[in-house]
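Title: Prediction job returns without error message
Component: structure pipeline
Severity: low
Priority: P3
Assignee: unassigned

Description:
Job completed but the reporter wants confirmation the result is attached to the right record. Sequence as submitted:
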Amino acid sequence: MNWIKISETDAIDNEESLAIDWQGKKLALHKLDDEFYLTDNVCTHQYALLSEGYLEDGCVECPLHQAKFCLRTGKAMNAPATVDIKVYPLRIEGSDILADFSQA
């Protein structure tokens, strides 16, 4: 695995999301229940940024049409979304948040 620093733990509060651009890819860093998740930032149903959505019950909800995606798996949980989003492996080293994009 190739771990790359994408942020720091104090850059995001609990129950919030942060937009991150990495080599032209739109990503969203989420923090829910003191756990971090990194997903694609664009909803698969229609263009909307998931970093502007809502976090609840282990999911991020699209701000445009309320499609929900599981933060752990990326699975589209309800209509209108039918295509999953990508979830990237993370690890924490001290205050650094590292992501692995080798499978991207």
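Comment from assignee: result matches the submitted record. The chain has a mean pLDDT of 96.
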